[in-house]
Amino acid sequence: MIDESNIEFSNRESLLRKELLQNLIILKSFSKAYGLSNLRIGYLVCSKVLSEKYKRLVTINEFSGISVYYANKAICSDYYKINVVKIHKELRYLAYYLNSIGIETFNTLSNTLFTKTIFDFNFIKELETHNISMVPIIDQNKDLHFRIACQTHKTNKLFIKELYKIDNIRKYILS
């Protein structure tokens, strides 16, 4: 099983080729590049044999009519290409301003940033105090990092503004 939900953010080629599909399931999503995350819709591509097994063994959730409508519109357009360019620009914006306050991030092939910076666990409470939402991630060394979702420029700007309001944010940074 290969998850290609973020492949549009890379220069990599999809594995959607017939000769590979015999024993392979490829997962696709409309949440990332297409910007339809609230619709909770995606699809998988596989051989007919795997499809029949999947239908027998897995509960298939139906999607709402509105989700299917917008997914069909999205898949038939190149809008996602414009959206990916906007997201790349916003990721650079976020990374620049995060770095300016001491928060380093890894390069990404998705629509989210992951912090290289390790944080004190008290930072979670500080974020809550400021109504700032970042997803805490604890790595294999039990170090605290964050995943930061790219939003619209207006929302990203507000997010950075709120982070700047945290007094002495560097006291929460361990490395």
Summarize the structure.
36% of the residues lie in helices and 13% in strands. It has 175 residues and is an alpha+beta fold. It has two domains: 2-77, Aspartate Aminotransferase, domain 2, CATH 3.40.640; 80-172, Aspartate Aminotransferase, domain 1, CATH 3.90.1150.
Walk me through this protein's architecture:
The chain has two domains: 76 residues, Type I PLP-dependent aspartate aminotransferase-like (Major domain) (Aspartate Aminotransferase, domain 2, 3-Layer(aba) Sandwich); 93 residues, Aspartate Aminotransferase, domain 1 (Alpha-Beta Complex). α3 runs parallel beside α5. A hairpin with a 5-residue loop joins β5 and β6. The mean pLDDT is 91. The chain has a three-stranded mixed β-sheet, with no helix packed on it. Strands 4-6-5 form a three-stranded antiparallel β-sheet, with no helix packed on it. It contains five helices and six strands. The chain is an alpha+beta fold and 175 residues long.
Strand arrangement, largest sheet?
Answer: 1-2-3
What's the CATH topology name of the largest domain?
Aspartate Aminotransferase, domain 1
Query: What summary fits the major beta sheet?
Result: 3 strands, mixed
Give the strand content.
5-15%
| Termini separation | 35 Å
Count of spatially separate domains: 2
* SS content category: alpha+beta
CATH superfamily of the largest domain: Aspartate Aminotransferase, domain 1
Low-confidence stretches: none
| Overall mean pLDDT | 91
